[in-house]
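Fig. S4 source data, part A: sequence.
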Amino acid sequence: MAITWHAFELRPKGSPPMPPEYRARITAAQPRLEAMARQQYGLEINRGPFGIDSRPALIGEKYADAHGLGAAYHDAVAAAYWQHAKSIDDRQLLADIAASLGLERDAFLAALDDPAYEREVDDDIAFAHSNGMTGVPALVLAEKYMVMGAQPYKVLEQVVRQCEDEAGP
């Protein structure tokens, strides 16, 4: 099964301030998310700062993808944020990640301001909104089933089995 990553911003620039009660709910849910990640997936979460601007990372992924390194870049940025508590709005950090994958640092930094890559991000976000995607992760399997938000392993397993059953041998 191939994975295709698309850009999405939970709180794009210009969004109204996050209500304190919503932020409190997110904070209160964090231990459950960490326990689920640990118990069901064997992952330790050490999340980066909350409320940062992910757009540079998303634009960088479009550039990396254009050079055949989109998946590797995505994985490295995700690890930087979710495992190493890095701020993925830091352009120098993103350039370090890109360079570690073999991308030319100055060209990568220039791409972060390239309107063509920004439009690609905007197109992904418009597609997500037009298809009712309002959270992350949003997984679409077999171009038919959408699973939104952090879900237990059993839910994902059930959807994958459904897709396999429908696909046949």
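Fig. S4 source data, part B ends here. The helical segments are 20-41, 55-66, 70-82, 91-100, 105-111, 115-130, 153-167.
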